[in-house]
Write a structure and sequence with these properties.
With 497 residues, the protein is an alpha/beta fold. The chain is built from 14 helices and 27 strands. The strands form 8 sheets. The protein has a 7-stranded mixed beta sheet with strand order 15-18-19-14-13-21-22, sandwiched between helices. Strands 10-9-8-11-12-25 form a 6-stranded mixed beta sheet, with helices on both faces. Strands 1-5-4 form a 3-stranded mixed beta sheet. Helix 2 runs antiparallel to helix 4, helix 5 packs across helix 14 and helix 9 crosses helix 10. It is globular and about 75 Å long. It catalyses: D-glyceraldehyde 3-phosphate + NADP(+) + H2O = (2R)-3-phosphoglycerate + NADPH + 2 H(+). Important as a means of generating NADPH for biosynthetic reactions.
Length: 497
């Protein structure tokens, strides 16, 4: 059970989870807590500390001091710590998964998968970090016109300092470790601000890093209200890098953060373009998997289907048939469709549905909602004047727009302010490549639904979908900077000359 055995120390006698700072689990001096509501029962499930700005200051001071020592820790030793944390994380997958089920209504099997995947990500990062950080570069001056070989430039990657990691509710463990592990292997210290929904799962994950024996102050996890510590964290002068995954908040952060590196993934309106020659059974399977997995609460979910008119009826029919087999219910029962994360999310989704209804969209199923649970819905004959054609529902509702040409589909995709991922279904690889080249998205999947991963693949968004690139290698590189040392010789010297 969550909060027992090795996790006993992370919760106090009043069942309020502590925050983590300077190698210890602590209660906030504020005496206040933040309640976490179970999306399924819609009743309070957990409480976490409401940290103060002064506590954030102390965390930053400790992180800065710890980072200086950590940067002097041999690379192999850093990797050793990470491998140990990964093993502990996987060993305790059950209680962490239980938190995911209760906090964010993630289906039970998917919750376990997230934790195991996170452990694998940490181990892979350790290995990749040893490889890429163990290499430097030597440049010689005579490769540039007008120079003799009298200068040798040695360059290597060095840490940035303190990295602030802010993951989203939908993958509060996996998208936390995707920031934590690269930061640590690169020699940085790490301050984690978990989402409110998902905070307890994240705190359990942090305990696994604590048990691995990382130095005090190197890793911290602060919880609390965004209104109290959100801006204070992101604008803190002690932060040297921010890695954020979420929504519009990231745009506000980017405007306030100042002269520090930013890594941001801010959502998408991932388009699925279906050509006339596509394998329609494959299309239907991927639309259902891509559009409705975890109730559509994924940045890389299929968010709009752009299908050629000549095959639209057949595609809709096949998708409807597969949707009818989706189970709807509680995450404990491992249902395909579970409650969305909050009542406000459910209300937003319902607003998009009602707008589409008023403007004449065809409902392939009856709209049904009970509390935060929304039954999967396919909307056909959606037009560009409907909100659902452009806005990201983050729920189990998918619009179908019928197109008369590939160009029309590409135009709709590129007219979006988002540009995270997209997908193309066709048997003609030449067409697929040409369409991929003109789609303004960070990634294009050919004959498969959008997906983040495997975790070592580059993952990035264009336009309002983000800044920079993720994926293990890219994250390690992003959380370092280049340091050069130039050796000046008294006279030119040529090897074997």
């Amino acid at each position: 059970m969550a909060g027992t055995d090795v996790f006993t120390e992370i919760v106090d006698g009043e069942q309020v989870y502590k925050y983590y700072a300077d190698g210890e689990w602590k209660k906030s001096a504020s005496g206040k807590s933040v309640s976490i509501v179970n999306p399924t029962t819609r009743k309070p499930q957990y409480k976490v500390q409401a940290c103060t700005q002064e506590e954030v200051n102390k965390v930053m001071e400790a992180a800065k001091a710890a980072q200086k020592l950590w940067a002097r820790t041999p690379l192999w030793k850093r990797a050793e710590y990470l491998h140990k944390a990964a093993a502990i994380l996987k060993e305790h997958k059950a209680p962490i998964a239980e938190c995911l089920v209760k906090e964010i209504a993630k289906p039970a099997k998917d919750a376990v998968t997230e934790v195991v995947r996170s452990g694998d990500l940490v181990s892979y990062t350790a290995e990749e970090g040893v490889r890429i950080l163990g290499e430097g570069k030597l440049l010689v001056s005579d490769s540039f016109p007008g120079n003799e070989r009298s200068k040798y430039c040695l360059s290597s990657k060095v840490p940035l300092g303190v990295v602030l990691a802010i993951p989203p509710f939908n993958y509060p463990v996996n998208l936390a470790v995707s920031k934590i592990a690269p930061a640590l292997i690169a020699g940085n210290s790490l301050v984690l601000k978990p989402p409110t929904q998902g905070a307890v799962a994240a705190l359990h994950m942090i305990q696994c890093f604590h048990l691995a024996g990382f130095p005090k102050g190197l890793i911290s996890c602060v919880t609390g209200k965004g209104s109290e510590i959100g801006d204070f964290l992101t604008m803190h002068p002690g932060v040297n890098c921010i890695s954020f995954t979420g929504g519009d908040t990231g745009i506000a952060i980017s405007k306030k953060a100042g002269m520090i590196p930013l890594q941001m993934e801010l959502g998408g309106k991932d388009a699925c373009i279906v050509l006339e020659d596509a394998d329609l059974d494959l299309v239907a399977s991927n639309i259902v998997k891509g559009g409705y997995s975890y109730s559509g609460q994924r940045c890389t979910a299929v968010k709009v289907v752009l299908v050629m008119e000549s095959v639209a009826d057949a595609v809709v029919e096949k998708v409807e048939a597969k949707m009818a087999k989706l189970s709807v219910g509680s995450p404990e029962d491992d249902c395909d469709i579970t409650p969305v994360v909050s009542e406000s999310s459910a209300n937003f989704i319902e607003g998009l549905v009602m707008d589409a209804k008023e403007k004449g969209a065809t409902f392939c199923q009856e709209y049904r909602r009970e509390g935060n649970l929304i039954w999967p819905l396919l909307l056909d004959h959606v037009r560009p004047d409907m909100r659902i054609a452009w806005e990201e529902p983050f729920g189990p509702v998918l619009p179908v727009i019928r197109i008369s040409s590939v160009e029309e589909g590409i135009h709709h995709c590129n007219a979006s302010n988002f540009g995270l991922q997209g997908c193309v279904f066709t048997r003609d690889i030449n067409k697929a490549i040409m369409i991929s080249d003109v789609m303004e998205t960070g990634t294009v999947q050919i004959n498969s639904a959008p997906a983040r991963g495997p975790d070592h693949f580059p993952f990035q968004g264009l336009k309002d979908s983000g800044i920079g690139s993720q994926g293990i290698t890219n994250s390690i590189n992003m959380m370092t900077k280049i340091k050069s040392t130039v050796i000046n010789l008294p006279s030119p010297s040529y090897t074997m000359g």
